[in-house]
Amino acid sequence: MEIVIHDSPQRLGEVAADAIAALLAADPTAVLGLATGSSPRPVYDALAARCERGEVSFAQARAFTLDEYVGLPADHPERYRNVIDADFVSRVDFAPGAVQGPDGLATDIPAACAEYEAAIVAAGGVDLQILGIGTDGHIAFNEPGSSLASRTRIKTLTRQTRLDNARFFDGDPQAVPQHCLTQGLATIMAARHIVLLATGRGKAEAVHHLAEGAVSAMWPATILQHHPHVSVLLDSAAASRLQ
Ligand code: F6R
Protein backbone atom coordinates (compact mmCIF):
# COMPACT_ATOMS: atom_id res chain seq x y z
CA MET A 1 0.00 0.00 0.00
CA GLU A 2 1.50 3.34 -1.01
CA ILE A 3 0.37 6.46 0.86
CA VAL A 4 0.56 9.94 -0.66
CA ILE A 5 -0.18 12.99 1.50
CA HIS A 6 -0.99 16.43 0.02
CA ASP A 7 -3.01 19.16 1.61
CA SER A 8 -4.66 20.36 -1.56
CA PRO A 9 -7.66 18.25 -2.69
CA GLN A 10 -6.95 19.51 -6.21
CA ARG A 11 -3.42 18.10 -6.03
CA LEU A 12 -4.78 14.74 -4.81
CA GLY A 13 -7.25 14.80 -7.68
CA GLU A 14 -4.43 15.41 -10.16
CA VAL A 15 -2.42 12.48 -8.73
CA ALA A 16 -5.37 10.12 -9.28
CA ALA A 17 -6.09 11.67 -12.68
CA ASP A 18 -2.44 11.05 -13.68
CA ALA A 19 -2.90 7.33 -12.91
CA ILE A 20 -6.11 7.15 -14.95
CA ALA A 21 -4.63 9.11 -17.86
CA ALA A 22 -1.57 6.83 -17.92
CA LEU A 23 -3.83 3.76 -17.90
CA LEU A 24 -5.94 5.09 -20.79
CA ALA A 25 -2.82 6.06 -22.75
CA ALA A 26 -1.61 2.46 -22.46
CA ASP A 27 -5.06 0.94 -23.05
CA PRO A 28 -7.84 3.21 -24.35
CA THR A 29 -10.35 0.37 -23.71
CA ALA A 30 -9.54 0.19 -19.98
CA VAL A 31 -12.28 -0.51 -17.44
CA LEU A 32 -12.66 1.97 -14.60
CA GLY A 33 -14.42 1.59 -11.26
CA LEU A 34 -16.17 4.76 -10.12
CA ALA A 35 -17.08 5.83 -6.57
CA THR A 36 -19.75 8.39 -5.80
CA GLY A 37 -19.55 10.94 -2.97
CA SER A 38 -17.44 13.95 -2.16
CA SER A 39 -13.96 12.37 -1.97
CA PRO A 40 -13.51 11.59 -5.71
CA ARG A 41 -14.91 14.90 -6.96
CA PRO A 42 -11.45 16.51 -7.43
CA VAL A 43 -10.47 13.48 -9.53
CA TYR A 44 -13.51 13.89 -11.74
CA ASP A 45 -12.94 17.65 -12.00
CA ALA A 46 -9.33 17.04 -13.08
CA LEU A 47 -10.36 14.41 -15.65
CA ALA A 48 -13.18 16.57 -17.04
CA ALA A 49 -10.71 19.44 -17.53
CA ARG A 50 -8.18 17.14 -19.23
CA CYS A 51 -10.90 15.70 -21.48
CA GLU A 52 -12.02 19.20 -22.45
CA ARG A 53 -8.42 20.04 -23.36
CA GLY A 54 -8.20 16.86 -25.46
CA GLU A 55 -5.56 15.30 -23.21
CA VAL A 56 -7.56 12.21 -22.30
CA SER A 57 -10.48 10.36 -23.86
CA PHE A 58 -12.95 7.87 -22.42
CA ALA A 59 -14.52 7.15 -25.84
CA GLN A 60 -13.42 3.50 -25.83
CA ALA A 61 -13.35 3.00 -22.06
CA ARG A 62 -15.97 1.39 -19.85
CA ALA A 63 -16.85 1.93 -16.22
CA PHE A 64 -18.76 0.33 -13.37
CA THR A 65 -20.05 2.18 -10.33
CA LEU A 66 -19.74 0.74 -6.84
CA ASP A 67 -23.15 1.03 -5.32
CA GLU A 68 -26.70 2.36 -5.46
CA TYR A 69 -29.50 3.18 -3.05
CA VAL A 70 -32.48 0.83 -3.22
CA GLY A 71 -35.79 2.36 -4.17
CA LEU A 72 -34.90 5.95 -5.03
CA PRO A 73 -36.94 7.03 -8.08
CA ALA A 74 -35.06 7.11 -11.40
CA ASP A 75 -35.11 10.92 -11.47
CA HIS A 76 -34.07 11.44 -7.83
CA PRO A 77 -31.03 13.75 -7.77
CA GLU A 78 -29.31 11.67 -5.06
CA ARG A 79 -29.69 8.37 -6.89
CA TYR A 80 -26.04 7.42 -7.32
CA ARG A 81 -26.42 6.87 -11.03
CA ASN A 82 -27.62 10.46 -11.39
CA VAL A 83 -24.89 11.76 -9.09
CA ILE A 84 -22.08 10.07 -11.04
CA ASP A 85 -23.62 11.25 -14.33
CA ALA A 86 -23.65 14.84 -13.07
CA ASP A 87 -20.25 14.70 -11.33
CA PHE A 88 -18.35 12.91 -14.08
CA VAL A 89 -19.95 10.87 -16.86
CA SER A 90 -21.81 13.75 -18.55
CA ARG A 91 -18.62 15.87 -18.46
CA VAL A 92 -16.45 13.48 -20.47
CA ASP A 93 -16.82 11.47 -23.68
CA PHE A 94 -17.92 7.98 -22.62
CA ALA A 95 -19.92 6.20 -25.32
CA PRO A 96 -23.63 5.70 -24.55
CA GLY A 97 -24.10 2.64 -22.32
CA ALA A 98 -20.40 2.44 -21.42
CA VAL A 99 -21.04 3.17 -17.74
CA GLN A 100 -23.06 0.68 -15.73
CA GLY A 101 -24.26 0.60 -12.14
CA PRO A 102 -26.22 -1.73 -9.88
CA ASP A 103 -29.98 -1.42 -10.46
CA GLY A 104 -31.55 -0.16 -7.25
CA LEU A 105 -35.01 -0.40 -8.81
CA ALA A 106 -34.73 -4.07 -9.85
CA THR A 107 -37.68 -6.26 -8.90
CA ASP A 108 -35.46 -9.33 -8.59
CA ILE A 109 -32.55 -7.97 -6.57
CA PRO A 110 -30.47 -11.18 -6.24
CA ALA A 111 -30.70 -11.68 -10.04
CA ALA A 112 -29.72 -8.05 -10.68
CA CYS A 113 -26.71 -8.42 -8.37
CA ALA A 114 -25.59 -11.63 -10.10
CA GLU A 115 -25.99 -9.97 -13.52
CA TYR A 116 -23.88 -7.04 -12.36
CA GLU A 117 -21.07 -9.33 -11.21
CA ALA A 118 -21.25 -11.14 -14.56
CA ALA A 119 -21.11 -7.85 -16.49
CA ILE A 120 -17.91 -6.84 -14.68
CA VAL A 121 -16.33 -10.21 -15.45
CA ALA A 122 -17.48 -10.05 -19.10
CA ALA A 123 -15.81 -6.63 -19.44
CA GLY A 124 -12.53 -8.21 -18.34
CA GLY A 125 -12.60 -6.89 -14.77
CA VAL A 126 -11.84 -3.45 -13.41
CA ASP A 127 -8.38 -2.05 -14.23
CA LEU A 128 -8.46 0.90 -11.85
CA GLN A 129 -10.97 1.36 -9.04
CA ILE A 130 -11.52 4.76 -7.40
CA LEU A 131 -12.65 4.46 -3.77
CA GLY A 132 -13.68 6.69 -0.89
CA ILE A 133 -13.93 5.45 2.69
CA GLY A 134 -16.69 5.92 5.25
CA THR A 135 -16.02 7.22 8.75
CA ASP A 136 -16.89 3.69 9.95
CA GLY A 137 -14.36 2.13 7.57
CA HIS A 138 -16.81 1.07 4.86
CA ILE A 139 -15.74 0.88 1.23
CA ALA A 140 -18.53 1.00 -1.32
CA PHE A 141 -21.41 0.24 1.09
CA ASN A 142 -19.74 -2.71 2.78
CA GLU A 143 -20.55 -1.68 6.31
CA PRO A 144 -18.81 -3.07 9.43
CA GLY A 145 -19.52 -6.78 9.71
CA SER A 146 -19.54 -7.32 5.93
CA SER A 147 -18.07 -10.59 4.77
CA LEU A 148 -14.54 -10.15 3.48
CA ALA A 149 -15.52 -12.59 0.68
CA SER A 150 -18.70 -10.74 -0.29
CA ARG A 151 -19.94 -10.08 -3.81
CA THR A 152 -22.56 -7.62 -5.09
CA ARG A 153 -25.64 -7.83 -2.87
CA ILE A 154 -28.22 -5.86 -0.91
CA LYS A 155 -27.07 -4.32 2.38
CA THR A 156 -28.64 -2.27 5.16
CA LEU A 157 -26.95 1.07 5.74
CA THR A 158 -25.78 1.73 9.31
CA ARG A 159 -27.16 4.59 11.37
CA GLN A 160 -23.73 6.24 11.11
CA THR A 161 -23.72 6.17 7.30
CA ARG A 162 -27.29 7.51 7.16
CA LEU A 163 -26.20 10.33 9.49
CA ASP A 164 -23.09 10.99 7.38
CA ASN A 165 -25.11 11.05 4.14
CA ALA A 166 -27.97 13.17 5.53
CA ARG A 167 -26.05 16.18 4.18
CA PHE A 168 -27.18 15.12 0.70
CA PHE A 169 -30.84 14.77 1.83
CA ASP A 170 -31.55 18.23 3.32
CA GLY A 171 -29.89 17.16 6.56
CA ASP A 172 -32.55 14.51 7.29
CA PRO A 173 -31.09 11.03 8.10
CA GLN A 174 -34.59 9.52 7.80
CA ALA A 175 -34.68 10.60 4.15
CA VAL A 176 -31.56 8.52 3.41
CA PRO A 177 -32.66 5.11 2.09
CA GLN A 178 -32.17 2.19 4.49
CA HIS A 179 -30.93 -0.24 1.86
CA CYS A 180 -28.43 -0.24 -0.96
CA LEU A 181 -26.91 -2.55 -3.54
CA THR A 182 -23.15 -2.66 -3.31
CA GLN A 183 -20.22 -4.42 -4.88
CA GLY A 184 -18.80 -6.79 -2.29
CA LEU A 185 -15.34 -6.68 -0.78
CA ALA A 186 -14.21 -9.58 -2.98
CA THR A 187 -15.58 -7.75 -6.04
CA ILE A 188 -13.52 -4.67 -5.17
CA MET A 189 -10.44 -6.76 -4.39
CA ALA A 190 -10.53 -8.16 -7.94
CA ALA A 191 -9.70 -4.70 -9.37
CA ARG A 192 -6.12 -4.54 -10.60
CA HIS A 193 -5.25 -1.15 -9.07
CA ILE A 194 -7.17 0.60 -6.28
CA VAL A 195 -6.90 4.34 -5.66
CA LEU A 196 -8.57 5.43 -2.40
CA LEU A 197 -9.05 9.09 -1.49
CA ALA A 198 -9.80 10.45 1.98
CA THR A 199 -9.71 14.00 3.31
CA GLY A 200 -10.62 15.60 6.62
CA ARG A 201 -10.21 14.68 10.27
CA GLY A 202 -13.49 12.72 10.22
CA LYS A 203 -11.74 10.04 8.15
CA ALA A 204 -8.63 9.81 10.36
CA GLU A 205 -9.72 6.84 12.47
CA ALA A 206 -10.88 4.85 9.44
CA VAL A 207 -7.60 5.64 7.63
CA HIS A 208 -5.63 4.52 10.69
CA HIS A 209 -7.42 1.15 10.65
CA LEU A 210 -7.10 0.89 6.85
CA ALA A 211 -3.32 1.23 6.94
CA GLU A 212 -2.34 0.08 10.43
CA GLY A 213 -5.21 -1.91 11.96
CA ALA A 214 -5.74 -5.64 12.10
CA VAL A 215 -7.64 -6.99 9.09
CA SER A 216 -11.21 -7.32 10.31
CA ALA A 217 -14.74 -7.33 8.94
CA MET A 218 -15.46 -4.66 11.58
CA TRP A 219 -13.24 -2.25 9.61
CA PRO A 220 -14.00 -3.48 6.06
CA ALA A 221 -11.39 -1.30 4.33
CA THR A 222 -8.65 -3.27 6.12
CA ILE A 223 -9.11 -6.03 3.52
CA LEU A 224 -7.17 -3.73 1.16
CA GLN A 225 -4.02 -4.64 3.11
CA HIS A 226 -4.19 -7.94 1.19
CA HIS A 227 -4.31 -6.21 -2.22
CA PRO A 228 -1.03 -5.99 -4.16
CA HIS A 229 -1.56 -2.50 -5.64
CA VAL A 230 -3.35 0.11 -3.52
CA SER A 231 -2.64 3.86 -3.60
CA VAL A 232 -4.06 5.87 -0.69
CA LEU A 233 -4.29 9.62 -1.31
CA LEU A 234 -4.77 11.68 1.89
CA ASP A 235 -4.64 15.18 3.24
CA SER A 236 -2.81 15.66 6.53
CA ALA A 237 -6.06 15.74 8.53
CA ALA A 238 -7.07 12.30 7.24
CA ALA A 239 -3.48 11.11 7.84
CA SER A 240 -3.33 12.58 11.36
CA ARG A 241 -3.75 9.26 13.18
CA LEU A 242 -1.13 7.39 11.17
CA GLN A 243 1.95 6.47 13.19
C1 F6R B 1 -19.83 5.83 -2.73
C2 F6R B 1 -19.21 4.89 -1.82
C3 F6R B 1 -18.95 5.21 -0.38
C4 F6R B 1 -18.22 6.54 -0.22
C5 F6R B 1 -17.98 6.80 1.27
C6 F6R B 1 -17.28 8.14 1.48
O1 F6R B 1 -19.99 5.25 -4.00
O2 F6R B 1 -18.91 3.83 -2.24
O3 F6R B 1 -18.19 4.19 0.20
O4 F6R B 1 -16.99 6.47 -0.90
O5 F6R B 1 -19.20 6.81 1.95
O6 F6R B 1 -18.13 9.16 1.03
P1 F6R B 1 -17.58 10.63 0.86
O7 F6R B 1 -16.53 10.59 -0.17
O8 F6R B 1 -18.78 11.42 0.43
O9 F6R B 1 -17.06 11.04 2.20
Automatic annotation (TrEMBL):
Known role: Catalyzes the reversible isomerization-deamination of glucosamine 6-phosphate (GlcN6P) to form fructose 6-phosphate (Fru6P) and ammonium ion.
Keyword Hydrolase carried by entry: yes
E.C. no: 3.5.99.6
GO biological process: carbohydrate metabolic process; glucosamine catabolic process; N-acetylglucosamine catabolic process; N-acetylneuraminate catabolic process
PROSITE patterns, alphabetized: GLC_GALNAC_ISOMERASE
GO MF: glucosamine-6-phosphate deaminase activity; identical protein binding
Similarity annotation: Belongs to the glucosamine/galactosamine-6-phosphate isomerase family. NagB subfamily.
Domain of life of the native organism: Bacteria
Catalysed reaction equations from the record: alpha-D-glucosamine 6-phosphate + H2O = beta-D-fructose 6-phosphate + NH4(+)
Natural source organism: Kineosphaera limosa NBRC 100340
InterPro entries found in the cross-reference section: Glc/Gal-6P_isomerase (IPR006148), Glucosamine6P_isomerase (IPR004547), Glucosamine6P_isomerase_CS (IPR018321), NagB/RpiA_transferase-like (IPR037171)
Protein name per UniProt: Glucosamine-6-phosphate deaminase
Activity control note: Allosterically activated by N-acetylglucosamine 6-phosphate (GlcNAc6P).
Top-level class of the enzyme under EC nomenclature: hydrolase
Site (Part of the allosteric site): S146, R153, K155, T156
GO cellular component term of the entry, any: cytoplasm
Keywords, sorted A to Z: Allosteric enzyme, Carbohydrate metabolism, Hydrolase
Pathway note: Amino-sugar metabolism; N-acetylneuraminate degradation; D-fructose 6-phosphate from N-acetylneuraminate: step 5/5
Keyword Hydrolase included in the entry's annotation: yes
Residues annotated as the enzyme's active site: D67, D136, H138, E143
Record domain Glucosamine/galactosamine-6-phosphate isomerase: where: 10-226
